[in-house]
Amino acid sequence: MTLLxxxxxxxxxxxxxAKALIYRDNYLSWRGLLHRVDRRSQEFKSMNLTEGxxxxxxxGNVPDFVILALALSKLGVTVVPIDPTTGxxxxxxxxxxxxxxxxxxxxxxxxxxxxxxxxxxxxxxEVRRRLQGTLLTCSVFKRDRPDFDCDPICVMFTxxxxxxxxxxxxxxxxxxxxxxxxxxxxxxxxxxxxLVAVPLFHAYGWDLxxxxxxxxxxxxxxxxxxxxxxVAKLVRDHNIDIMPGTPLMYGELAKLPTAKPIKAENxxxxxxxxxxxxxxxxxxxxxxxxxxxxxxxSTETGVISLDMPxxxxxxxxKVLEGSEVRFTPLKGSKSRSTKSGSIWFRGPGLSPxxxxxxxxxxxxxxxxxxxxxxxxxxxxxxxxxxxxxxMDRSSRLSLSGREDDIVxxxxxxxxxxxxxxxxxxxxxxxxxQVRLLSDPYTxxxxxxxxxxxxxxxxxxxxxxHCARNLAPHKVPRRIEFCEKL
Length: 485
Prior knowledge:
The protein is an alpha/beta fold. Helices cover 29% and strands 29% of the residues. The chain has two domains: 1-403, Rossmann fold; 407-481, GMP Synthetase, Chain A, domain 3 (2-Layer Sandwich), CATH 3.30.300.30.
């Protein structure tokens, strides 16, 4: 349970005054980071946050996120990172799924999520305290200690195949395996400089940023606002050699008129979340003289594969050593190929259990009803990812879609059915249909076609309704009115 803190303590002893974390114009040495973590852990201890409790961190890519996560780790507390842009409805579902003993947020987030209302089912904190020297608020709730078959170090939230919040329990064994695979494959060491502009509260940034930094003593650069100009400046000024990114980030970097070659000797820039368009990969190679490494990663499994040579942007490379994938035919398909179809994964990075707001999702039972269910693990340890793909003769894996209506926007899962349900809950909307509109350089957006009952209904009113009930990345950016779908 104290794994992350143990890594910090070991690395701080070895690295001392070397830079551990850099945020804008400020930095923390490894010794300074350890000192701040120890001080915060005492503050949490005074709130009766003890081993086995679950505590939510609703923060972005700021030093406090790292410090508080490690301080909780020292106490044996399970860290539950939560996207700070999470809407009220989704936060209530997360609170229903995860028995949080406490929630740390910026003041507005706590006030919105714990409002005392006679007609509300929201959790009311028994204690609400301001963390010393910060604007952060810690709300403590009356919650029993959760009882699962494992002791998670962290619970990472994503979306299940219906769009509901899904908490993935990650254990000591998972993190040791995931960090070892990444460090060996990407050749990360104490001299590495890792830029994390993707969210730490998602598994992609957490695994490739925080875990590898703590395990190796590398320096991590945090960036909260994803700006292509800012990212390009950091990469140039600090010779960043490792950066997990998304297609949107690289698309924006490819358009910069001031693009210059990267000076780092061995740059390992990864692209995860969704496939990178070939033309963007070629533009990055032309302007920056680097080859983007395709990455297949999910919250439940960690990194599955990497295209280390960066020569085939249409693939996500070879499966990491120690992990396995297999394929089964798609429903209705007559193909018997063992090299294409539904992707199953088995490996040490796989989470043993996941939870949702209404049920325990995954407990080694894949066959439910009339067949295997997406997001479940069978009795032999094979996890059905929901992704569709194929393996070529060189053992490189390519992804071609999903079995459900899940899509990814900015690396985050979105269930199109959930968005359609939200649209149809608007009084003036009779029916709705949602699709994903993608552009190689500007990323993906949700576009909705709606049949309205009223002639004077405004698109802005419908979008405002969605914004009140959905996370920002799920909200349709364009409404198209039609007479029928």
